[in-house]
Every structure is written in C-alpha cells, then in structure tokens.
Design goal:
The termini are far apart. Helix content is 30%, strand content 27%. The strands form 5 sheets. The chain has a 9-stranded mixed β-sheet with strand order 2-1-11-10-12-13-14-15-16, sandwiched between helices. An 8-stranded mixed β-sheet has the order 7-6-5-3-4-8-9-19, with helices on both faces. It has a 4-stranded antiparallel β-sheet with strand order 17-18-20-21, with no helix packed on it. It contains 14 helices and 26 strands. By secondary structure, it is α/β, with parallel strands linked by helices. Among the domains are: 175 residues, Rossmann fold (3-Layer(aba) Sandwich); 97 residues, 2-Layer Sandwich (GMP Synthetase, Chain A, domain 3). 49% of the residues are buried.
Length: 504
C-alpha cells in the first residue's frame, strides 16, 4: 500500500491488524469495533474525503472530544497522505483561529459543542474552509461526517512515504502564534514500538484512552495498543467514577494521566479490587499520589518518563518506585545526550540541556524553517529542558532553560510571554510578569505579578477573568499579586530569576 519497499506507514499497520487480529475488538466507544471493521471504516472515510477533494499533503482539522471517529480520521488521512491538525478544544475562539490560519486546512471536523470556537473563522471571507459536523447534532446546510463514509468505493492508492507528515500538534505560543510540530508516520510508529516493548504489550492489553487525543501521550498509547493488537476504550470526557467503572468492566490494563486525574481515581475507588486489572500507568503526578496508588494497586506500576511532542512522545521511562524523582532510562530507539552551552557533551552527573535524536524525532515546525533549524541543529533535537545522567544511566530532569520559561499546568503548556501580553492590554495595568509556581493539584500554577496604574488597582478576579476571556482557561493566572515595580535586567527585560526569588 506504500510507495517503496523501505516504507512502512500507519496504513500498513492497520492492514496487518485486520489480517491477523481481525475479529478482536480494537476500539470500544459507543459500539465495539474490531480491527477488521476499523480498517473498513478507515477506507470508507478515506473514500469520502477523497471525493471531497482531500489529496496528498492537504490538511484536515479536528476539534472533537475522544471518539472512534477521531482515530478513524487519522487512519483515513494516512491512507490519502493527508495531514490531521489536532486542535486543542480548550483554546479560545481567537486561539483556534490562529491555529487554523497557520495550518490552512481544507476541512474542519468538529462536534456541535465546539461550534462557537469555529464561528469567528466561518464569518471570514479569506478562508476556504468547509466545516463538517461530528455526532448526531446535524446542522442545516452543513455536511455530517457520516456522509463521508462511502462503502464499496475505495480511494485510489496514494504514494505515501513513512517520512510524510501525518499529524500537526501545536506545542508553543512563544511569539503569540502557535507552532505546529509535524509528526510523520515513522515518528509515530517508532514511538509506539518503543512503548509496546517497554511494557510488553500484547493482544490482551486494554488501554483507557482518557487523555484528550490532541495530546501526543494519548495518541502514543492508543497507537502502541493498536500495534500490539489490543483494544482502546475511548473515553470522551474524564470522570473518575466513570473511569473506575470502565476499568472494571473492560479489564483495563494501562492508561496515562495528568494530575489531578489519578488522585480523583483513587478517591472514587473505595474497593481496590475494581482496579485489579491495571498494570501500567504513566504520567505527571506527585510522589504522594503515586505512592497511594501503588499501595492500593500493588500489582500495578507507575512509570515516570521524559518526553515532548517534538520528540514524538516519551524518550525515557522507568518505574517510579525504582528511583523516585528520576525519569527513567532512554528508550531503545532514542539517543539522549546532555550538552553545555556550546552544544558539547557533558560528563555523567553534570547538568545541561537534554538533546535527543532517533526515528521518533519530529520533522520540524510547519512554516517555520528558522526555528526548525535552530531546534534541530547539529542533528539533535534541542529540547530546551535541563537534565543529567547518573552513574547507572538514569535520566534526571532538572528544569527548563531560562529562555524557555514554560509553565506546565495539568498537562498543558503555558508560555509566560503570551499571558503577559494579554495582561498588558488591561487599561489598569502598566506591566506584568508571569511565571509558574508549584501547585499540589495541577503540578504548576500560573502566577502573575502586576504593576497597576497609579491609584487604579483592579481586583485579582477581574484580571483572571480578563485573561480567561482572551486565552484558554488553563492559561489564566491562579495567583495575582500587585507590586509597585518589576525587577529588570540591563537590557530592559524582566529579571525572571529575581522575580522568582522575590515573589515565587
């Protein structure tokens, strides 16, 4: 199905599963879907998209909660050589518009609840974008995704290569615009192979897909389970009580989480036997929550790891209990090094920037050649994160480079400069600085230090609502303090080290 003997794409993987695991359930959503049925539905959707004018290299946006149509769309795009832009539905309408401006999709598939996020784009005349509704809530004058499933008319074979982009995942908003990381068939399959091998996944494994599929981690676990011939239980919206019920009913063996999901799961499960099937959990959480989980589920392991979207997901992983605070050993297909400011390797034990190379490393940022060249200089992915290796070869994460200043709250990325730019638009503020502080529930919280106009001091709630009306809600400050002036460096920029020392 591919264009060359050396190529292996997602389409090949789905065809293999349909051939050798055809009658086994691949997905459980509103109805169970076998591996054979999944391939058939992917072919049908690819036929409809082809008839709608989607060809090799075209982009398709999706704005949806987790559902089987989501993974079918990715499979259909793979079949055509198209690219899926996975849009974070927690963004504001203005942010969604910027994503679509950058990705320039021909079609946007969305659930009805997210229609308000797309309406500002549809009112414009400069974009040629067709909206297609997902779900039972049809809209007059617009097609439904159900109309795109065409039976008995497969699309022509496309010349798809393993290094063709398949996904656009939006990672950073440093300059107020999203950067779309391009992940290829090879990137995604390599990431899945590594995770399948690390956990020994096979046809008996069941993945609870509870993280949103616009996250690389959710996509990676879903694909790793597919690769193993197992089943993913697709959960549209995370709820701890529902998660416990699904885990017990379907004998779930693995899932990924971001704080505070696991804490809620533990609280909702009064009978530990309901979680007895779970073998593997990975994510970001506190040592206390991880300890309670493993005490309650002694046969399960919580895996700590390090990764990022540009690396194709996880690049290191290890059981949290083996070395609390470490982020595991490099996965088999990932070369990891620690480098200094001159990009030269540092000795074991010294802290420097984490760099990665291997088949899971992304292709680059769409339309951003200069940033791509800087990030992939010297043949390595420069992560912007700091770390060190110990004598046993474990990787330890040590924080972020000062130039990165990323805040990670509840699994989502927030860049201070973006929030600061919005705060400075408030008429009662002269200046503002933003940074992350430790938070027991979300891992990190956004803190804003603000300089008000003389004699005009807004309330913290007013500023939080102001940011929330313009950016995704998770980017709002949770803590706001007012000061007379902000510390500055000689170049006029905020002195972030002193800011943390004074107000962190």
């Amino acid at each position: 199905m591919t264009s060359g003997a050396a190529d292996y794409t997602l389409t090949d993987l789905l065809a293999r599963n349909a051939r050798i695991r055809g009658d086994q359930v691949a997905f459980r959503g509103s109805v169970p879907v076998t591996h054979r049925e999944h391939l058939a539905r992917v072919e049908q959707l690819a036929a409809g998209l082809h008839r709608a004018g989607i060809a090799h290299g075209d982009r398709i946006a999706i704005l949806s909660r987790n559902r089987t149509e989501y993974v079918e769309l990715i499979g259909a795009a793979a079949r055509l050589g198209a690219v899926v832009s996975v849009v974070n539905w927690r963004l504001s309408a203005a942010e969604v518009a910027m994503v679509l401006d950058g990705d320039a999709p021909k079609i946007a598939l969305l659930e009805a609840e997210f229609w308000p996020l797309l309406e500002p784009v549809l009112d414009r005349t400069d974009l040629d974008l067709e909206p297609v509704v997902i779900g039972s809530d049809r809209r007059d004058g617009f097609r439904s995704i159900d109309d795109l499933y065409i039976v008995d008319s497969p699309p022509p074979l496309a010349a798809v290569k393993s290094d063709d982009p398949l996904l656009l995942v939006h990672t950073a908003w440093i300059d107020g615009r999203p950067r779309a990381a391009m992940l290829s068939h090879r990137n995604l399959i390599a990431g899945a192979i590594q995770l399948q091998g690390a956990w020994g996944l096979d046809v008996r494994d069941v993945h609870l897909c509870c993280l949103p599929l616009f996250h690389t981690t959710a996509l990676l676990l879903t694909l790793a389970t597919q690769l193993a011939g197992g089943c993913s239980v697709v959960m549209p919206k995370y709820d701890a009580d529902d998660a416990v019920a699904l885990i017990q009913r379907h004998r779930v063996t693995l899932f990924a989480e971001f704080a505070p999901m696991l804490e809620g799961l533990i609280a909702a499960c009064v009978d530990p036997a309901r979680l007895a099937s779970v073998r593997h959990v990975c994510g970001l959480d506190t040592p206390e929550t991880i300890g309670r989980f493993e005490d309650q589920c002694p046969d399960a392991r919580f895996w700590s790891g390090y990764g990022q979207t540009e690396a194709g997901g996880l690049v290191s992983i290890g059981p949290s209990r083996d070395a609390a605070g470490a982020v595991g050993f490099p996965l088999p297909l990932c070369a990891i090094d620690i480098v200094g400011e001159d990009d030269s390797s540092l000795p074991i034990g010294e802290t420097g920037e984490i760099v990665v190379r291997g088949p899971s490393v992304f292709l680059g940022y769409r339309g951003r050649a200069r940033e791509t060249a800087r990030t992939l200089r010297g043949g390595w992915l420069h992560t912007g994160d700091m770390g060190r290796f110990d004598a046993d070869g474990r990787l330890w994460y040590s924080g972020r480079l000062a130039v990165k200043e990323l805040i990670k709250t509840g699994g989502e990325n927030v860049y201070p400069s973006e929030v600061e730019a919005v705060l400075r638009q408030h008429p009662a503020l002269l200046d503002a600085a933003v940074f992350g502080v430790a938070d027991p529930q979300w891992g990190e919280a956004v803190k804003a230090v603000c300089v008000p106009v003389a004699d005009v001091v807004p309330t913290a709630d007013e500023l939080i609502a102001f940011v929330g009306s313009r950016l995704a809600r998770y980017k709002r400050p949770r803590i706001v303090v007012f000061v007379q002036a902000l510390p500055k460096r000689s170049d006029g920029d905020h002195d972030r080290a002193q800011l943390r020392e004074l107000y962190g």
